[in-house]
Amino acid sequence: MGRVNFLTSLVLSISVGVILFSGCPASAQLRQNFYSNTCPDVENIVRRAVSTKVSQTFVTIPATIRLFFHDCFVSGCDASVIVASAAGNTAEKDHPDNLSLAGDGFDTVIKAKAAVDAIPRCKNKVSCADILALATRDVIVLAGGPNYPVELGRLDGLSSTSASVNGNLPKANFNLNQLNSMFASRGLTQADMIALSACHTLGFSHCTQITNRLYNFSPGTPVDPTLNRQYATQLQGMCPRNVDPRVAIDMDPTSPRIFDNAYFQNLVQGKGLFTSDQVLFTDSRSRNTVTTWASNSQAFNAAFIQAITKLGRVGVKTGGNGNIRFDCGRFN
Fold first, then answer.
1. pLDDT for 295-309, tens place per residue?
2. Beta bridge partners of residue 249, listed in sequence order
3. How many CB atoms lie within 10 A of CB 118?
4. Are the CB atoms for 158 and 322 separated by under 8 Å?
5. Which residues of the chain have pLDDT under 50?
């Protein structure tokens, strides 16, 4: 979540979020094997394209997951984050909170869409939103994470504006109340939020996201006291004062290329990179979930599958509210 930064940004226009996302009746149309009659081999086609992309660069994995999260949280899972800005309209992808989205995530969807459309019977039959959902599952599996069935049947959104991003992505300094409020406005529970936060077991963040925890936490306490001291020293070595804003570090200091429950083990040790990560352990209301999943990968995987499936139902477009884009990067 948020972030190849996995990372970055989350929240507050809750009132808007409630109006846009609560209920989500359109998700009722989603189902597995949605394309069984129109493009029955779509999952294999996408999987092959994603595997090829991952073989070219690991960044594909965290970039695709983060792209899915940023897409679903702003206007629903409708691939609106992929649309390029055009004359008279600044699109979602050019909002400051989305500028750190790695190009490899976009490229993954574009290449998978091209592979699907290269099959005559599939051409212009599969939405970019569904391709992104499938690609997200595929990169998680390629990183060692759990396999799960993907519900399909989303249409692509008809709008993409930079303004729609405002206040709709989590911030690295969020506390538990802010995280829970933002996720709840999208029909996601605290357990869902904690499970999805574990996507920070992959990818990297820019040093600028954590310098306040290392040097300016509070008057008289420059280093965040919830940060493991040894880890803080290590981070200060990688992110010195006035560091080049382009410098990035791994989100997970132990297994940054593997999708696993090490994220929770790190939190127990005070090694959460963001305030919004470490608060999941320091706040007593979420601590038990963290400690349970730190020692039980099967329980975490089950919870994650449920959470990401629910995330994929947020703000789904149907009927006249969407279409199938010929080009994921522009409207038809």
1. 999 999 999 999 999
2. 205
3. 11
4. yes
5. 2-24
Place of tokens 């493009």: 39
Q: What is the pTM of this model?
A: 0.92
Q: What angle do CA 147, 42, 71 make, to 5 degrees?
A: 65
**Amino acid found at 231:** Y
- Contact present, 300 and 198 (Cβ < 8 Å): yes
Q: Which position among 70, 95, 200, 206 bears the catalytic label? A: 70
Predicted local confidence at residue 26, as pLDDT = 61
Q: Two tokens at 49?
A: 């394209």
Distance CA 200, CA 264 (A): 10
Are the beta carbons of 71 and 80 closer than 8 angstroms? yes
Nearest in space to 138 (alpha carbons), one of 43, 202, 72: 43
Beta bridge partners of 206: 248
Q: Which residues contact 38 (CB under 8 A, 6 or more apart)?
A: 121, 122, 125, 126
Please, are residues 272 and 176 in contact by the beta-carbon 8 Å criterion? Answer: no
In angstroms, the CA 136 to CA 204 distance is 17
Q: Which residues contact 160 (CB under 8 A, 6 or more apart)?
A: 75, 80, 81, 83, 89, 91, 92, 93
| 70 noted as active-site residue | yes
- Give dist(CA 284, CA 262) in Å, integer: 20
SS (H, E, C) the chain: CCCCCCCCCCCCCHHHHHHHHCCCHHHHHCECCCCCCCCCCHHHHHHHHHHHHHHHCCCHHHHHHHHHHHHHHHHCCCCHHHCCCECCECCHHHCHHHCCCCHHHHHHHHHHHHHHHCCHHHCCCCCHHHHHHHHHHHHHHHCCCCCCCCCECCEEECCCCHHHHCCCCCCCCCCHHHHHHHHHCCCCCHHHHHHHHHHHHCCEEEHHHCHHHHHCCECCECCCCCCCHHHHHHHHHHCCCCCCCCCEEECCCCCCCCCCCHHHHHHHCCCCCCHHHHHHHHCHHHHHHHHHHHHCHHHHHHHHHHHHHHHCCCCCECHHHEECCCECCECC
171: tokens are 């911030």
